[in-house]
Design goal:
- It comes from Amycolatopsis ultiminotia.
- Pfam families: Ferrochelatase.
- This is Coproporphyrin III ferrochelatase.
- Helix 4 packs across helix 5 and helix 6 crosses helix 8.
- This protein is globular.
- The chain is α/β, with parallel strands linked by helices and 347 residues long.
- The protein has 2 domains: 158 residues, 3-Layer(aba) Sandwich (Rossmann fold), CATH 3.40.50; 145 residues, 3-Layer(aba) Sandwich (Rossmann fold), CATH 3.40.50.
- Helix content is 43%, strand content 13%.
- Strand 7, helix 10 and strand 8 form a beta-alpha-beta unit.
- It binds coproporphyrin III and fe (ii) ion (FE2).
- The site of coproporphyrin III has 25 residues, from helix 1, helix 2, helix 5 and helix 10.
């Protein structure tokens, strides 16, 4: 079939207290993130013993995908590598080369375009291949899947379940969240011919599709986990401020769906299950957080279907007319000038 492995490429997270600061330094290297923000975020991690759930969740999702591959008769060993923490993708790729892998597909754990969600994974691929040097496996990245019917229906069922948790009463507001990014990064997101803002437009489109499937008429799209110096504009409103606004409007119950993420990693459990839930509590609002899709059987089916687009000519399923970019070879950008890294403000 032309491919001899799958590389599962993710963000990475610390797995012990001593790993927190070195991890954060990797994440923010060369970015305009102030030291105070770094120390504040370090505290969030230390609150959980310095362990992010992200690696464990990735390993569990990989196990489900391995089962699904077997069930569909595809023989494709899966390797796990990260951008920011062990197992680092450079080391994983060296192992793959050592095992004789010549050509591998890459599944990045993000459904969207944009610098952090798409282009930076291309840079990871390029960096890992450069580190491995001659004979590095050829790496073909799988496409963005924010509008894939399996992704949309898994998130929609999670939203329905969260509504049920609140007793399916009238007047529940559904709020979708995604990681905020600088305005400048959103403007630069996507192939230049698409006019920019591909990240926020894809998030909005995914939210629209999920709301339609879950039968929800009224919903909002907001942002979470902003960093960077305060004078730099990021996508707004923030989820916590938005809860204040909803309270002012008399909304008494909210369901929050972190549609921008595939798993319950630390930014989800800290910023939503802690901070947002607490603010909702202060306002006396009922609050339920919808699950992320990684543990849903449809997520493993989705990954294997994306693989089958390459190895078995599976039809390319998508619910929107948005461009399905993200599929490139050896870390090439989706198009010339696609998701150019934003100019970083001086610290
Ligand atoms: C769009 C996007 C996604 C979604 C796409 C995808 O999933 O890939 C995402 C995912 C994640 N972000 C994560 C964690 C962090 N992100 C940070 C910083 C930043 N994220 C950004 C954007 C995104 N981030 C940006 C523009 C920055 C500013 C610095 C920079 O320009 O790069 C920082 C630094 C401290 C801070 O500033 O908060 C941390 C610790 C974790 C892992 C959590 C865990 O450990 O469980 C995950 C999955
Ligand atoms: Fe891109």
């Amino acid at each position: 079939m032309g491919y001899d492995a799958l590389l599962w490429l993710s963000f990475g997270g610390p797995e012990g207290p001593d790993e927190v600061l070195p991890f954060l330094e990797n994440v923010t290297r060369g970015r305009g993130v102030p030291r105070e923000r770094l120390l504040e975020v370090a505290e969030h991690y230390q609150h959980f013993g310095g362990v992010s759930p992200i690696n464990r969740l990735n390993r569990a999702a990989i196990a489900a995908v391995e089962k699904q591959l077997v069930a569909e008769g595809l023989e494709l060993p899966v390797h796990f590598g990260n951008r920011n923490w062990r197992p680092m993708v450079e080391d994983t790729l060296a192992t793959m080369k050592g095992e004789g892998v010549r050509r591998a597909l890459v599944f990045p754990t993000s459904a969207y375009g944009g610098y952090s969600a798409c282009r930076q994974y291309d840079e990871d691929i390029e960096r890992a291949r450069a580190a491995v040097g001659a004979g590095a496996p050829e790496l073909v990245k799988l496409r963005q899947f924010f509008d894939h019917p399996l992704f949309v229906s898994a998130v929609a069922d999670a939203v329905r379940a969260a509504h049920a948790e609140l007793g399916d009463r009238p007047g529940i507001r559904t709020v979708f969240t995604a990681h905020s990014i600088p305005e400048s990064a959103d403007l630069a997101a996507g192939p230049p011919a698409e006019g920019g803002r591909l990240y926020s437009r894809q998030i909005a489109e995914a939210a629209r599709l999920v709301a339609a499937e879950a039968g929800i008429a009224e919903y909002d799209v907001v942002w979470q986990s902003r960093s960077g110096p305060p004078q730099v504009r990021w996508l707004e409103p923030d989820i916590v401020d938005h809860l204040d606004a909803l309270h002012e409007q008399g909304v008494a119950a909210v369901v929050v769906s972190p549609i921008g993420f595939v798993s319950d990693h630390l930014e989800v459990i800290w910023d939503l299950d802690n901070e947002a839930a607490e603010r909702a509590g202060e306002h006396g609002m009922a609050f339920a957080r919808a699950a992320t899709p990684d543990a849903d059987p449809r997520f493993a089916e989705l990954v294997v279907e994306l693989i089958r687009e390459h190895v078995a000519d599976a039809p390319v399923r998508a619910l929107s007319a948005f461009p399905a970019a993200g599929c490139t070879v050896n870390g090439a950008p989706c198009a010339a000038g696609c998701c150019e890294p934003a100019k970083r403000p001086a610290r």
